[in-house]
Fold:
Amino acid sequence: MWALRVWWVLLGTLGVGSAQLTFQKIESVSVSACNGTEIVIPCIATNLERKNTADMFVKWKLEGEDFFSFDGFEHKFLRNSTFQSTNLLNLESLTSGIASIKLSRSEAIPGNYTCVVVEFHREGKTVIELLYGSQTWFEPVEKFFIIATVITAAVLFLLQFGFVAIKFDMMLHKMIGFGVAGLIVTIVAVVGGILLVQEGYKPSNQAGLGLVVLPVVLLVPPLYFLFGSVFEKPPLFAIILVALKALGYLIAVAGFAVCVSACPPKRASVMIAGVGLIDVIAAIALVYMIVIGTSFKDHQPPRKAVEEPLNDAKGVMLE
Structure:
């Protein structure tokens, strides 16, 4: 078999047929978190003639060292011990010139890969560089803003709760409920953040994003009840703030729904903007409670001073 190949190569050099295979030009392949657990390195010959697997031989090298080969005549695969997962992308497609390989992500070492294809009397090779890009689902800046905005929302809520608990009358069960809500969001966001920052795009990363964003809903309804502890009847502006905070959560959830199933994530800025709106509203609400709420309370007559004359009047009427 090899003697025939040498003979046809010699004929090719003398002008009998074309002795050189040509390839689709692919200079590099970039691997990111979105590639999953399997990597494909392409190699596509464009001018095969015989299109018979038995007449073909494929060899792959990494930085000049052989690590995988396929002999079509003997239908035999050879693999280096460190590249045991390597295989042709599709054996049936080899006759169409597709000599691409697939291998596990753990074995895919960055570097220059050489693909050598022989078709009976003709041979050719091409070099593809394997590059490693971002190994995380979100960019580092995006992850920072996602986690930071949620933790900020929880901290601002705890500040609101602490201020109202100190300055205004609040039932014990409300104090416990508000405190637990803020702590739950904070703790769950930290756990979710730890899962989110891990490398890759796996179910654990998706779960982490959900733990960071979705529990923020626990901070929306309590804002109305906090205003109820500051004002006898929450003013229109306070109700608007609650509505805007709910809107921010809906925007964040919409962004989450688009991002969680896409890699690279789509509309991450929408999710960040939604949680950011929650932070802005929470900050405005805190200032409003401190400035307007305190002033409102200072101008209200003490509740006992109002209740005592009413009680006296009731006593006279009963007599």
